[in-house]
Amino acid sequence: MHFTGRTWRPPYEAHSVIIQATSGCTYHKCKFCSLYKNECFRMSSIKEFEEDLAVGANPFAMSYENLKLRALTVRDYLIKCQTIAMFASIRDIKNKEVWQLNPYFISVDSLTLFPDTELYQMAQQGLFVPAEEKERIRELQILINNLNIRTHLFANTVSNFTPVTAWLPYDREKVTNELQFVIDNTDDMEMQEYRNNLKSLG
To answer: Which residue ranges make up each domain of the chain?
Structure first.
């Protein structure tokens, strides 16, 4: 998280996630305030702001009732908002009841290690072994074959060797067959080279 100088958190925001959009003060003349005394005003770049959202974003850790309340509040204030998306840890998904999980779409990304991450360093030391490309595709097939809800599935970012989209359950057989064709007809070295050449996911 990007925080500059002192951070002020009022008691009623004790459980809030703070994302810094600006720091310091534009006025600096209030005699009753010493909060930003030695700090120049600064606006966070959009890059920092987005990074902080990514780092601090796991609202699915909340209970279903808390999530529902926030979704309804968003609707109250942003009446044109049609969807709310969030990142979620599998640890938080598994704690929800089946009836609470009815996503409009599911996005699947494939793990890609970059040099500035701890997991990359672990892989270099032999402490972590990433799944091979065909194993990743088989995992995706298993997910598709076991999703028993109507949803859009997107596995079409650059992190996926074979980009696919599917409207489930209707496209299940078609997409799993496409993925099987890739498994049967693509060289392992070609797939690994693709992964090794990824410099970013953007």
So the answer is: 15-55, 102-202
